[in-house]
Amino acid sequence: MGKPILYGMETSTVVRNVLMVAKAIDLDIEYREIDLFAGDHLKEEYLKMNPQHTIPTLDDNGEYLWESHAIAPYLVEKYAKDDSLFPKNDIRKRARINQRLHFDNGVLYERCILNIVMPVYTQNKSTISPETIDSVNKSYEHMEKFLEQGLYLVGDSLTIADLACGASISALFEFVPADPAKYPKLHAWFERIKALPYYKEANEKGNIAYIKMIRDASQLESHLFISKPIKSKMEKPILYGMEISMVVRSVIMVAKAIDLDIEYREIDLFAGDHLKEEYLKMNPQHTIPTLDDNGEYLWESHAIAPYLVEKYAKDDSLFPKNDIRKRARINQRLHFNNGTLYERCILNIVMPVYTQNKSTISPETIDNVNKAYEHMEKFLEQGLYLVGDSLTIADLACGASISTLFEFVPADPAKYPKLHAWFERIRALPYYKETNEKGNIAYIKMIRNLMAKGKQ
Question: Quick one: which of 27, 127, 150, 251 could link to 156 by a disulfide (CB 3.0–4.6 Å)?
Answer without folding.
Answer: 150
